[in-house]
Amino acid sequence: xxxxxxxxxxxxxxxxxxxxxxxxxxxxxxxxxxxxxxxxxxxxxxxxxxxxxxxxxxxxxxxxxxxxxxxxxxxxxxxxxxxxxxxxxxxxxxxxxxxxxxxxxxxxxxxxxxxxxxxxxxxxxxxxxx
Length: 130
Known about the structure:
82% helix; 5 helices; 0% strand; 130 residues; mainly alpha
């Protein structure tokens, strides 16, 4: 049975992912996966799979809004998306064959690498000041 706490947790995760997607272009993996694991007690694999479904409406609404602002590069997005299809099929097969621990560690490592890289970039002075 779904508890009231689960519903509130799902609402908070969904809202936070929506805001971060619209503002920063992130939300699925960065908000949905840890949120589902921590707040809704999903397994790492279950959270990753659920995140893939949850990101669909977020991506559609976000892309439509950004298109309205003239920021969408549809051709580039379609190329990247189509080229990622074999990768996601292989990645899902690999994820299903691994235990939870390597998935958790791999997810954490990816998050850390990106966090460090983005922090370094943000802390560099703008090129006009160099």
